[in-house]
């Protein structure tokens, strides 16, 4: 009945205007007096309630919906009213949806169809308004809740079919709004309460993200990209099998072969979202983050980890700590996916630079290095290069690193007996001995050679470790001595040696109480800071000779 | 041998000289003359006969079927019988068995189915050694004795014994047993009715029985002697006992008196003895004599004497004084002591004891988990073990041994302090010989004070002065504070915490602190009061903290005072090693937790103190190891932000290298820091990496600029403070940078010197040379003062030379000249004394079971054999008996038959005769007719 609609439209315009006036009034009033505000808010609330009640009463008052939407949209600052209106509208729409008022029916009269179409338009309008609310810091959380509740109702009742169908359009709007919303924590809440909680939400959210990232003409904003990254990183627990996919927000689809039931489909969505994100490029920190959580939460989502190949090789080639982090991923691909990474070991060898033993990823790297060189089929020349290089590095390494390296050497020597010449090389001929006597032995190792197969390390010796046998720290010195002891042990468990640091070493020393009297230097020195007076006495200590204690 | 068995027997008998031709009379007489040989001869004869018998009866022995085995080492025969291959004598064994059976089985057999019999129990009936007459006499005496013993007709006691000899089946019936049985019977069956009566009776009986028993017990002694068991009355017994005890008492008294006499004699001699023992003891001896004369109570005298003897034994004067040594001897002793100390230090440096390394590796194998902690623990123990060793001769131990003689006898004796002074003086005299000592021992700083006198040096001050006459404790209690001319009070409270110490030293100038500390140490000397030990310990801890505190707020002129305080701490550490090390460790702990990369000057001073107080060359040390670690941590992890950080690092580098001066241990962090410093301060950024040390990009404004005119100077502690450095002008900062460069170069040079013997010296110092060369390159040297460039060049040249030497001296590693390990073998160990008959079952239980089974089987076989033999024997006996019976019957039968036949024959003869007679008669009659 267009007339009615017209009427209502006309009618609706009046209170709308009135509301507008009211709104203006309230604004003014708010400026003038504070205590009236409460009253006004109550008034508005009661008015909203009246409007809502009227809608529920009869179809005649459907125009109130438009009024409420207007109320919602226009209340820029008065979040209470907007939220109240939004809530009421939500209730209204849920009810209408449940009643089936929004369902297009074939046999419906012309008038009924018009009403349906009109209501649908209002729903869309309402959703837009909600999206707008999501953009505001104060209202975002409630709006999200309402949007999701409405989403559920919509999914169930938008069609007259028994089966619920996911309202992609509305959800797309929500996701976009959430991603673009400046509200803090909104993304986190969305992630925790919805995405991580429900498998279907996650599924569609990933889909939407991919669409969002790829389907736009204008470049995605940096902040949004970061948000998407956070969201994706946050999605951690990969379901183990299709059976685990059972937490659905919307009623589960009847079809057995629905995409929601397929783990591969889920993974595919995640993979596509990630690829879309990675194609846009990541910052260095993000790359690090990705690489760190690669094994835990990213790679398992990929049905085709090969797709990560480019990313990983890029990272690996970029050098520095990034290469270190990319190492495990690259190795995974080499091992599992038959990635052909030319000169992997050359690259690995080049990672052994001056900083590696001081880096905080040291133990992580060592675990990997141990794994990479675990094969007894590697050429001894190559292994020897690694040994020699690391031995060189230990000369400038902290004790915690030496403590890990020496037992590792032991294990490697056990595995590659050819390398043991580095510990024990007896000159065979008389000429050799004579040559040694006359010219000494210069190290054949080429420290600057890049290719570990060409360094001649196997002809060298590990004097460095022998030097460390007189390390200042007693435990390090003792550990270094295992190289010159008889190799009776099968191997050392590397894990026991990896995670040490200066503080843990000192802690180990300090945790023991002094029970036995420590040895005290028996001679009390005459001079500590002051200079020696006369020539008759001993010369100054090093400290006094190099330092000025103001007494000269 | 020819001939038959008989002939051979004859021959062998002749051989043995048993039979032979008739001996002449002469010979027989001669034989008879040596009577003594007669017995022997008979023995010989019987032996020979035995041999011959054995020889001629081959079936008497059981031998191996294939003859005796060849003699090999393993089956050496146990005796010579088996050596002949004889493994048994069946004949003998059989006869023995037969005999035994005859004695047992046969008797049993014969007695079978028979009842009764008489057992002859008459005295001596079965004794074959007694003649009939003896038996008779013995029997008679016995009877007489028995009848004689009867004392009274109505003696019930006697009755019991008389009634003995009731026998049943040859066994004596014990009367008491019967009684007991009767009791039981009573208790069981007649309990209801006759209880009171019967039990009463039983009780009475029991009583009597017990009395008997008691008497018997008393009389046991007499009875055992085999005397006639005559009963003694109780009176007799008691009187005897009393007599005995009186006798014993008398004997004891006599012995005591004898002892007393002896002692009195000795006592009389004591004065002379004492006079001999020590000349000056006259008054005492007089006293003793007087006591003896006066006859004072002996016990008191004895006690006195004992006490005196003890005093004599413990007294200082009784101990032989040490011989005054010649100067050479003193020096030699001293140098030996130093040598010993150095040896101990070396031992600690190597890690406690020789076997430590092996053991620690073994430990690794055993427990890989929590490794570092465990290792540290291991490192800890050997050091402790050494501690124990040292304590005897080192530091504390000796210090007390010499000095307490002075202190113990009391502070009222001022001479002792004079002696102390002398000791110090003697220490000074030793200066002359210090060179000698050093050349031998390589002693730390070549300090020439005699170590034992160190304490005196610190404590003597106040006490050697006139005030020492008054006991200081008295002064302290008087509470009046007298100040000396410098205004330092003579007495202080002993501060227990740092807060207290701050309060106590308030108003004192820092330079006066050492005096104050000295006074406190004298006032609260541990010998003065039992609580002082603890007090001084806490004081030492507080002092350590105070030094750190002073270091943090230092003034340049405080350093002599700080030095003196550190030396005080060192001296205190000798008496209170645990407390002082705890104090140091507490500060290290704070350092590590609060400011691991922001060490203050106070920390630097303390770390220096640790380096001098404790032996830094030890493999493990409870204080030094954490201290070195914290130094290394700063050097390794600090990324210097300003010049002050570089200065602090430089100081710590010096400390690190000084710590390692003896042990020459490698400190990687030192190289890192020094090279980094040089690179950072250089004007030009290096274009390539010089080595494998991690290079940190310096903060802005660190690189040196236009310093050609800056003179080289030394660094000082103020420059370690970042707040100080920020206030410096540009010129001052440049000067500071130059100083850092210069010092770092010197450190590198010293480090190269120290570690020139290290295995990887070449690798370690090649980067250093490169860095130094980089500094002297044109671009850099233009900004450095020329003198510094020269210094750097010379250092570089020096290190290069060392590098060349190291290269020439380098040899390929030969670490594994170990004895090759034996391959594990699974062949069982060879059993030396293998016996195939023995079972080598590894399962013990099974082996025992098998043994038991074998034994059982053997026993079973033996028993069966015996039974079979018994059966045979019985059958044989039966047969024999039957045969006997049969023969007897046969005999009888034959006899009867023959008798009858005889009779019949006779009758027939008679008949014949009669018939003939009648025929004759008839004939005659016929004839007559």
UniProtKB/TrEMBL annotation, chain A:
One of its GO terms (cellular component) is small-subunit processome. GO terms for biological process: ribosome biogenesis. Residues 1-40 are annotated as: Disordered. Residues 323-480 form the CCAAT-binding factor domain. InterPro entries: CCAAT-binding_factor, Noc4. PANTHER family: NUCLEOLAR COMPLEX PROTEIN 4, NUCLEOLAR COMPLEX PROTEIN 4 HOMOLOG. Belongs to the CBF/MAK21 family. This is CBF/Mak21 family-domain-containing protein.
From TrEMBL, chain B:
The keyword Transmembrane does not apply. GO terms for cellular component: Noc4p-Nop14p complex; small-subunit processome. Keywords: Nucleus, Ribosome biogenesis, rRNA processing. One of its GO terms (biological process) is maturation of SSU-rRNA. Pfam families: Nop14. Residues 918-929 have a biased composition (Basic residues). The keyword Metal-binding does not apply. Residues 1-99, 183-235, 313-396, 430-457, 469-488, 897-929 are annotated as: Disordered. It is found in: Nucleus, Nucleolus. Residues 37-53, 319-345 have a biased composition (Basic and acidic residues). Its main location: nucleus. Residues 185-196, 385-394 have a biased composition (Acidic residues). Belongs to the NOP14 family. PANTHER family: NOP14, NUCLEOLAR PROTEIN 14. Involved in nucleolar processing of pre-18S ribosomal RNA. Has a role in the nuclear export of 40S pre-ribosomal subunit to the cytoplasm. This is Nucleolar protein 14. It comes from Lasiosphaeris hirsuta.
């Amino acid at each position: 009945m267009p007339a009615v609609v017209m009427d209502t439209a006309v009618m609706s315009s009046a209170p709308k205007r009135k509301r507008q006036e009211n709104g203006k009034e309230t604004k003014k009033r708010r400026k003038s007096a504070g205590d009236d505000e409460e009253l006004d808010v109550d008034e508005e609330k009661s008015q909203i309630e009246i409007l809502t009640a009227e809608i529920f009463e009869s179809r005649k008052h459907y125009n109130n919906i438009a009024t409420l939407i207007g109320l919602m949209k226009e209340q820029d600052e008065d979040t209470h009213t907007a939220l109240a209106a939004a809530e009421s509208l939500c209730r209204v729409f849920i009810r209408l949806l449940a009643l089936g008022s929004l369902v297009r029916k074939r046999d419906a009269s012309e008038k009924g169809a018009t009403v349906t179409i009109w209501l649908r338009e209002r729903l869309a309008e309402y959703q837009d308004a909600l999206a707008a609310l999501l953009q505001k810091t104060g209202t975002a959380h409630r709006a999200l809740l309402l949007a999701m509740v409405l989403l559920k109702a919509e999914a169930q009742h938008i069609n007259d079919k028994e089966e619920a169908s996911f309202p992609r359009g509305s959800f797309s709007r929500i996701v976009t709004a959430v991603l673009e919303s400046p509200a803090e924590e909104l993304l986190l809440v969305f992630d925790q309460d919805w995405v991580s909680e429900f498998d279907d939400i996650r599924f569609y959210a990933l889909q939407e993200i991919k669409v969002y990232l790829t389907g736009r003409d204008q470049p995605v904003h940096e902040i949004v990209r970061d948000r998407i990254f956070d969201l994706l990183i946050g999605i951690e627990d990969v379901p183990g099998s299709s059976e685990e996919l059972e937490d659905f927000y919307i009623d589960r689809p009847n079809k057995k072969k629905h995409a929601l039931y397929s783990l591969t489909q889920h993974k595919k969505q995640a993979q596509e979202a990630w690829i879309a994100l990675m194609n846009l490029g990541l910052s260095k920190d993000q790359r690090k983050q990705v690489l760190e959580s690669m094994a835990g939460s990213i790679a398992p989502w990929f049905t085709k980890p090969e797709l990560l190949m480019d990313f990983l090789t890029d990272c690996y080639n970029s050098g520095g700590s990034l290469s270190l982090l990319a190492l495990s991923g690259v190795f995974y691909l080499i091992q599992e996916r038959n990635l052909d990474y030319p000169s992997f070991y050359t690259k690995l060898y080049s990672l052994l630079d001056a900083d590696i033993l001081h880096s905080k990823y040291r133990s992580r790297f060592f675990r990997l290095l141990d794994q990479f060189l675990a094969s007894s089929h590697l050429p001894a020349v190559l292994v020897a290069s690694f040994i020699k290089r690391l031995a060189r590095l230990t000369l400038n390494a902290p004790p915690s690193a030496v403590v890990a390296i020496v037992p590792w050497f032991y294990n490697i020597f056990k595995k590659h007996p050819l390398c043991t010449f580095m510990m024990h090389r007896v000159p065979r001929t008389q000429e050799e001995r004579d040559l040694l006597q006359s010219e000494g032995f210069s190290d054949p190792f080429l420290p600057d050679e890049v290719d570990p197969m060409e360094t001649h390390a196997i002809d060298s010796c590990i004097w460095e470790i022998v030097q460390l046998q007189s390390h200042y720290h007693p435990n390090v010195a003792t550990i270094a001595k295992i190289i010159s002891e008889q190799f009776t042990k099968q191997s050392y468990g590397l894990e026991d040696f990896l995670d040490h640091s200066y503080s843990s070493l000192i802690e180990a020393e300090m945790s023991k109480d002094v029970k036995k009297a420590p040895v005290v230097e028996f001679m009390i020195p005459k001079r500590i800071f002051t200079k020696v007076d006369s020539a008759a006495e001993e010369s100054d200590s090093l400290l006094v000779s190099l330092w000025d204690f103001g007494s000269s | 041998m020819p001939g038959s068995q008989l002939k051979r027997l004859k021959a062998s008998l002749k051989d043995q000289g048993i039979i032979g031709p008739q001996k002449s009379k002469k010979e027989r007489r001669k034989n008879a003359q040596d009577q003594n040989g007669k017995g022997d001869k008979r023995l010989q004869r019987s032996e020979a006969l035995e041999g011959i018998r054995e020889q001629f009866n081959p079936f008497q022995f059981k031998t191996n079927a294939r003859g005796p085995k060849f003699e090999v080492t393993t089956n050496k025969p146990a005796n010579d019988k088996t050596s002949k291959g004889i493994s048994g004598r069946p004949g003998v064994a059989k006869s023995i068995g037969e005999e035994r059976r005859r004695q047992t089985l046969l008797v049993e057999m014969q007695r079978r189915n028979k009842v009764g019999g008489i057992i002859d129990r008459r005295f001596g009936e079965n004794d074959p050694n007694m003649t009939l007459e003896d038996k008779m006499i013995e029997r008679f005496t016995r009877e007489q004795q028995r009848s004689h013993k009867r004392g009274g007709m109505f003696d019930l006691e006697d009755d019991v014994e008389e009634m003995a000899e009731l026998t049943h089946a040859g066994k004596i019936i014990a009367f008491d047993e019967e009684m007991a049985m009767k009791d039981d019977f009573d208790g069981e069956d007649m309990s209801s009715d006759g209880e009171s009566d019967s039990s009463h009776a039983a009780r009475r009986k029991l009583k009597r029985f017990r009395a008997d028993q008691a008497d018997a017990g008393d009389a046991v002694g007499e009875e055992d002697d085999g005397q006639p068991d005559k009963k003694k009355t109780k009176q007799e017994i008691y009187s005897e006992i009393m007599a005995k005890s009186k006798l014993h008492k008398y004997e004891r008294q006599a012995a005591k008196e004898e002892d007393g006499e002896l002692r009195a004699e000795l006592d009389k001699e004591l004065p002379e003895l004492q006079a001999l023992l020590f000349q000056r003891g006259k008054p005492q001896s007089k006293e003793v004599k007087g006591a003896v004369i006066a006859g004072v109570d002996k016990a008191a005298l004895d006690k006195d004497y004992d006490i005196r003897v003890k005093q004599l034994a413990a007294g200082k004067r009784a101990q032989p004084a040490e011989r005054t040594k010649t100067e050479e001897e003193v020096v030699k002793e001293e140098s030996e002591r130093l040598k010993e100390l150095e040896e101990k230090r070396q031992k600690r440096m190597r890690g406690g004891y020789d076997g430590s390394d092996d053991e620690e590796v073994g430990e690794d194998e055993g427990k890989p988990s929590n490794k570092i902690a465990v290792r540290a623990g291991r490192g800890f123990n050997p050091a402790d073990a050494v501690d124990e060793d040292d304590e005897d001769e080192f530091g504390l131990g000796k210090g007390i041994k010499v000095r307490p003689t002075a202190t113990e006898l009391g502070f009222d004796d001022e001479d002792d302090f004079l002696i102390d002074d002398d000791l110090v003086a003697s220490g000074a005299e030793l200066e002359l010989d210090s060179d000698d000592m050093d050349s031998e021992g390589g002693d730390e700083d070549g300090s020439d004070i005699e170590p034992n006198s160190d304490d005196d040096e610190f404590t003597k001050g106040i006490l050697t002065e006139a005030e020492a006459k008054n006991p200081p404790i008295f002064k302290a209690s008087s509470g009046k504070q007298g100040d000396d001319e410098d205004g330092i009070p003579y007495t202080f409270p002993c501060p227990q915490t740092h807060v207290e110490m701050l309060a106590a030293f308030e108003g004192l100038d820092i330079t006066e602190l050492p005096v104050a500390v000295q006074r406190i140490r004298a006032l609260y000397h541990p010998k003065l009061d039992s609580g002082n030990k603890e007090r001084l310990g806490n004081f030492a801890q507080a002092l350590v903290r105070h030094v750190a505190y002073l270091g943090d707020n230092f003034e340049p002129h405080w350093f002599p005072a700080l030095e003196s305080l550190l030396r005080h701490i060192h001296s205190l550490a000798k008496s209170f090693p645990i407390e002082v090390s705890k104090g140091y460790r507490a500060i290290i702990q704070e350092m590590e937790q609060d400011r691991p990369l922001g060490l203050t000057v106070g920390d630097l001073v303390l770390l220096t103190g640790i380096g001098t107080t404790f032996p830094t060359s030890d493999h493990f040390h409870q204080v030094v190891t954490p201290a070195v670690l914290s130094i290394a941590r700063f050097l390794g992890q600090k990324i210097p932000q300003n010049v002050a950080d570089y200065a602090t690092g430089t100081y710590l580098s010096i400390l690190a290298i000084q710590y390692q001066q003896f042990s020459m241990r490698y400190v990687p962090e030192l190289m890192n820091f020094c090279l980094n410093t040089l690179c950072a301060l250089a004007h030009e950024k290096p274009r390539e990496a010089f080595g494998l040390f991690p290079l940190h990009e310096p903060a802005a404004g660190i690189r040196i600029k236009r310093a050609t005119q800056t003179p080289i100077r030394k660094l000082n502690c103020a420059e370690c403070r970042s707040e100080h450095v920020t206030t410096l002008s540009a010129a001052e900062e440049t000067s500071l940078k130059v100083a850092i460069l210069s010092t770092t170069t010197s450190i590198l040079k010293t480090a190269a010197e120290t570690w020139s013997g290290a295995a990887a010296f070449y690798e370690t110092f090649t980067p250093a040379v490169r860095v130094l060369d980089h500094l002297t390159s044109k671009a850099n040297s233009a900004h450095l003062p020329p003198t510094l460039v020269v210094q750097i060049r010379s250092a570089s040249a020096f290190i290069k030379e060392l590098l060349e030497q190291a290269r020439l001296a380098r040899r390929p590693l030969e670490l594994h000249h170990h004895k090759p390990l034996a391959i594990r073998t699974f062949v069982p160990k060879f059993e030396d004394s293998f016996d195939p008959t023995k079972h080598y079952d590894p399962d013990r239980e099974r082996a025992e079971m098998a043994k038991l089974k074998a034994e059982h089987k053997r026993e079973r076989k033996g028993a069966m054999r015996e039974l079979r033999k018994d059966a045979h024997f019985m059958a044989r006996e039966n047969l024999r008996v039957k045969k006997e019976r049969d023969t007897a019957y046969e005999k009888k039968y034959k006899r009867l038959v023959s008798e009858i036949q005889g009779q019949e024959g006779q009758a027939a003869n008679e008949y014949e005769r009669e018939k003939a007679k009648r025929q004759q008669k008839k004939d005659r009659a016929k004839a007559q007719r």
